[in-house]
């Protein structure tokens, strides 16, 4: 039995609320159980210098966690004067994942920055950031299309992410903190709406795993991503 009482292949309750901030070109608040992330997308009418005169756009991300997103206060990284290695790793992951779903030539020489701010954390914050970040990005692209700034839709497919792991000897979908902290194997899976792999991060946290177990987790992730894509579509309807 999972601590939450969920079945092995059951996601936490998912909700995605759009248009939650006044100024951002795209925004949403995604809730995956007790993990809540505010995602905003900002359009900048200039690409990074390394893309000058290439005709290509760029999508990047920044990630942060509010001081009381966890059960004890975490010092703001701005106060420490630098980002942690974990923060840098996660925001690079979010950027890579979202770029995989974008035709950068159709975007043109502009940049979209997706900010993911964790309001409350209970495991899976990077996955929630990617899933919600895609919705914010989609809304920003809609504004560009409506304004006639771009002539074709740069969004190639949905992008979503979910965690899976081996908990108490069983493969489980969408780990919360209690499961994540005790999992023998932990993985993050990023897929397109069509089920194509973008990135897989898997590690043996307390026990090695077999190829068969890896395949089981990948199958679970596929189920979870399909459900998250349904949630994305519902939020945008």
From TrEMBL:
Family: Belongs to the RNase PH family.
Protein source organism: Gemmobacter aquatilis
Underlying gene: rph
SUPFAM superfamilies tied to this protein: Ribonuclease PH domain 2-like, Ribosomal protein S5 domain 2-like
Gene Ontology biological process terms from the UniProt entry: rRNA 3'-end processing; rRNA catabolic process; tRNA processing
Keywords in alphabetical order: Nucleotidyltransferase, RNA-binding, rRNA processing, Transferase, tRNA processing, tRNA-binding
Any single Pfam family the record assigns to this protein: RNase_PH_C
Record note on quaternary structure: Homohexameric ring arranged as a trimer of dimers.
The protein's Enzyme Commission number: 2.7.7.56
UniProt function note: Phosphorolytic 3'-5' exoribonuclease that plays an important role in tRNA 3'-end maturation. Removes nucleotide residues following the 3'-CCA terminus of tRNAs; can also add nucleotides to the ends of RNA molecules by using nucleoside diphosphates as substrates, but this may not be physiologically important. Probably plays a role in initiation of 16S rRNA degradation (leading to ribosome degradation) during starvation.
Coiled-coil ranges (or none): none
Protein name per its UniProtKB record: Ribonuclease PH
MF-aspect GO terms: 3'-5'-RNA exonuclease activity; tRNA binding; tRNA nucleotidyltransferase activity
Domain of life: Bacteria
Catalyzed reaction equations: tRNA(n+1) + phosphate = tRNA(n) + a ribonucleoside 5'-diphosphate
EC main group: transferase
Residue intervals of the Exoribonuclease phosphorolytic domain: 10-140, 159-223
Amino acids binding phosphate: 86, 124-126
